[in-house]
Amino acid sequence: SQGPISGVNKDIAVLQCHGDCDPLVPVMFGSLTVEKLKTMINPTNVTFKTYSGMMHSSSLEEMMDVKQFIDKHLPPID
């Protein structure tokens, strides 16, 4: 069991992605998760993206969003 989120972790950036046709984890559960997360960390740093027609899988659009998120939040490797 983890303790409360505190200190620098309160300002961590989060990207949560979800297909709106996911038959295993309904998109409603993703929405509930992101709303709970926003109560635990800085809500302005939480991004929730849904992908039209995507099931319990990934897509090129999602991977491009993940790449953009990583490029924005992690320093480049020399």
From TrEMBL:
Organism: Toxostoma redivivum
E.C. code: 3.1.2.22
GO cellular component term, pick one: endoplasmic reticulum
Protein name: Acyl-protein thioesterase 1
A GO biological process held by the record: fatty acid metabolic process
Pfam families: Abhydrolase_2
EC top class, as a word: hydrolase
Organism superkingdom: Eukaryota
Catalytic reactions on record: S-hexadecanoyl-L-cysteinyl-[protein] + H2O = L-cysteinyl-[protein] + hexadecanoate + H(+); a 1-(9Z-octadecenoyl)-2-acyl-sn-glycero-3-phosphocholine + H2O = a 2-acyl-sn-glycero-3-phosphocholine + (9Z)-octadecenoate + H(+); 1-hexadecanoyl-sn-glycero-3-phosphocholine + H2O = sn-glycerol 3-phosphocholine + hexadecanoate + H(+)
Location of the protein in the cell: Cell membrane; Cytoplasm; Endoplasmic reticulum; Nucleus membrane
Keywords attached to this entry: Acetylation, Cell membrane, Cytoplasm, Endoplasmic reticulum, Fatty acid metabolism, Hydrolase, Lipid metabolism, Membrane, Nucleus
Function as written in the Swiss-Prot or TrEMBL entry: Acts as an acyl-protein thioesterase. Hydrolyzes fatty acids from S-acylated cysteine residues in proteins such as trimeric G alpha proteins or HRAS. Acts as a palmitoyl thioesterase that catalyzes depalmitoylation of proteins, such as ADRB2, KCNMA1 and SQSTM1. Acts as a negative regulator of autophagy by mediating palmitoylation of SQSTM1, decreasing affinity between SQSTM1 and ATG8 proteins and recruitment of ubiquitinated cargo proteins to autophagosomes. Acts as a lysophospholipase and hydrolyzes lysophosphatidylcholine (lyso-PC).
Matching InterPro entries: AB_hydrolase_fold (IPR029058), LYPA1-2/EST-like (IPR050565), PLipase/COase/thioEstase (IPR003140)
Major localization class: membrane
The UniProt record lists the keyword Phosphoprotein: no
Single GO MF descriptor: carboxylic ester hydrolase activity
Assembly, per entry: Homodimer.
Gene expressing this chain: Lypla1
Phospholipase/carboxylesterase/thioesterase domain boundaries: 6-73
